[in-house]
Specification:
This protein is 30% helix and 23% strand. It has eight helices and nine strands. The relative contact order is 0.18. A five-stranded mixed beta sheet has the order 3-4-5-7-6, with helices on one face. It is α/β, with parallel strands linked by helices. A hairpin with a 2-residue loop joins strand 3 and strand 4.
Length: 242
């Protein structure tokens, strides 16, 4: 089974469209979004509409969660304040009612093989689950959810980490960002996981994980920022992948 995971679009419509074009030509069995549909750019409604149109299972990100706060007058416009003024009522209702995590359970070799989908970490929606996150803390979080694979976003930096847990192995996969990469590569990033009946927690190489990078019209996205009330620094960050 081939499963696509993507996250952190951040209202970047040109990036999302390029992502959909790429996966439609690739083929897949299932797809999931790990949140942060909004923030940093001018197309939050268009991005949400595209996700909803495709009925993609989606969890809440911290920028989506921020829409729970009321619109307030700001002396200096902020990212979250500007986003709250852009998102329409229908899409706000959708975003603030998204689940905080999703669990996927497969049976391989007559045993459960469980995937846990979060935005930050199982601990908090805005927790930065980096590659060097303390091993014992990661294991505790995964064990409490009976997860063999933990998928997350939020840091915008992709990685695949394998952690030995007794006689078995656990996998942590940060899927990167579609709309705002921060690993010095401005191209779209998403993850593809492949598993089958041979997948097992007892094999460290049981999970095939690949990260796909895709070119998109960065200048269109960056220029939209510069022509808006969002800080121009957001545009430069898109150009350099930071």
């Amino acid at each position: 089974m081939k499963i696509i995971f993507f996250s952190d679009i951040h209202a970047n419509l040109p990036a999302l469209r390029a992502f959909f074009e790429d996966i439609d030509n690739t083929g897949y069995d299932a797809i999931y979004c790990l949140g942060d549909l909004v923030g940093y750019n001018i197309w939050p409604n268009e991005v949400v509409n595209e996700i909803r149109k495709r009925n993609i299972p989606t969890i809440m990100g911290n920028h989506d969660e921020a829409l729970l706060l009321p619109i307030a007058k700001e002396v200096e416009p902020t990212n979250r304040g500007l986003t709250r003024t852009l998102v329409n009522d229908r899409n706000r209702a959708y975003l603030i009612n998204l689940p905080r995590h999703l669990s996927l359970s497969f049976v391989t070799k007559n045993k459960p093989f469980n995937l846990l989908l979060v935005h930050g970490s199982p601990k908090a929606i805005n927790d930065y689950l980096t590659f060097d996150y303390p091993k014992d803390e990661v294991l505790n979080m995964m064990q409490s959810h009976k997860a063999d694979v933990l998928l997350c976003g939020h840091t915008h930096k992709p990685f695949h980490r394998v952690i030995k847990d007794g006689e078995s192995y656990k996998h942590v996969v940060n899927i990167g960002s579609v709309g705002k990469p921060k690993d010095s590569d401005p191209r779209i990033c998403y993850a593809i996981l492949e598993l089958d009946q041979s997948s097992s927690p007892s094999n460290s190489e049981t999970l095939e994980v690949s990260f796909k990078r895709v070119v998109y019209d960065i200048e269109k996205a960056a220029t939209a920022v510069e022509q808006s009330d969002f800080p121009n620094a957001f545009a430069e960050a898109l150009r350099i992948g930071e």
